Amino acid sequence: MDTAFTGVEDQLGITAACRLTGRSRATHYRLLKPPAARTPRSHPQAQPSALTAEERAAVLELMNSAEYAELPPAQIWDRELDAGRYHCSVSTMYRILRAKGQAGERRRQATHPAKAVPELVTTAPSQVFT
After folding, report:
1. For 10-52, how does the pLDDT look when each residue is reduced to its tens digit (9 = 90+)?
2. What share of the chain is helix, strand, coil (3-state, %, to 5)?
3. pLDDT score of 76 more than 70
4. 14-21 and 25-32 are packed helices; what angle lies between their axes, rounded to 10 degrees?
5. N or C: which end of the chain has fewer CB within 10 A?
6. CA-to-CA distance for 17 and 9, rounded, in angstroms?
7. Residue 103 phi, psi dihedral angles, 5° rounding
8. Distance of CA 72 to the CA centre of its chain
9. Exposure pattern of 19-34 as b/e (b: 16+ CB <10 Å)?
């Protein structure tokens, strides 16, 4: 398609050549000047308001304390805010828990024993009917 375009571009002009070959003019001009190659950053960019490692550890310790161990982060955040303490947002609490693999159900769950499948044993015909 590029060879067909370049063959008629000189004779017809860009607009007519684009119409004839079915190529969009935007595509034509984009192909003339491809974007410059992006260079990777030399260092990772850090959010200026991000919590430090010590602050994250303190929030995790708070959420895992005996008082809050079974509560979801939104309730922990509410109770701490009522007490006049603000550590971070609710979404940051979820991020901290997810990073530590604790983002699942925080309450204690009942585990039920496996039920045995009943086994019907007969020694003669017509002893068991199901």
Report:
1. 788 888 888 888 888 898 888 888 888 888 888 888 888 889 9
2. 45, 0, 55
3. yes
4. 110
5. C
6. 5
7. -80, 0
8. 19
9. eebebeeeebeeeeee
